[in-house]
Amino acid sequence: MSNNQRFNAEAAAWDSNPDVHRFSYGALQALLDARADLAAAKNGGAPAAVDVLEIGCGTGILSLRLAPYVHSILAVDAAEGMVDALRHKLSGLKDGDVGANISPLCVLLVDPEDAALPPAPDGGGRMKFDLITSHLVLHHIADLEGLLRTMYGCLKPGGEVALTDFEDFGPEARKFHPEAKMGGVERHGVNAAWFAGLMKSAGFENVDVKAAWVMEKEVEEFPGEWEDGQPRRDGVALETMRFPFLLCRGRKPH
Q1: How confident is the model at residue 16 (pLDDT cuts 50, 70, 90)?
Q2: I need a labelling partner for 180 at 20 to 30 A (CA). Which of 7, 8, 115, 191 fits?
């Protein structure tokens, strides 16, 4: 099953998974801690004058958490089912409502000048962004070099990427996904040093890739233990593991 087929199939039940919400909250806090302009908005100031591109937005859980702190979010995902779920959440919002500054877009983004992207305000090409985010997306992408080149091309000069995913800390990182959910998983987390090298090769400066927080997650004791990838709820204590999450930052030169 391709990534898009898997996530289209899972879109309706996506928000019912408490891990999805916990991990997105961790990503939001990492972003707020890393960027003083967003932190100022968190502490009662006006939203930062930051236009965000989120790649792999899913049903918009992180987008909606981040929306009060920024000027705008273009929330992109290649899975139509996920984007439809976000569109449903946003339907009926009025100016000033949380999330009214989010624009959902279904596209497999591989070209910074893709005609599906909004036009630049000056009419010259496509819109560029101050900040690009993604959360738990990198481990699903086969061609990370290509993704980073696309992100680089979508940034304004001086713009930044701030990407979050779980860390590849060795063979045990495989347990992040139950065996039934391995479809579309390209790697078991992200190796920090390796990914920092990819970012530098793509042209990013001030590259900083490091563990920013740790989350505990229930895992299978052995591959295939959980039927349909869901943990058994029969009163038996489940095995848990702690997974470090990386925040991967880099800036496009002015």
Answers
A1: confident
A2: 191
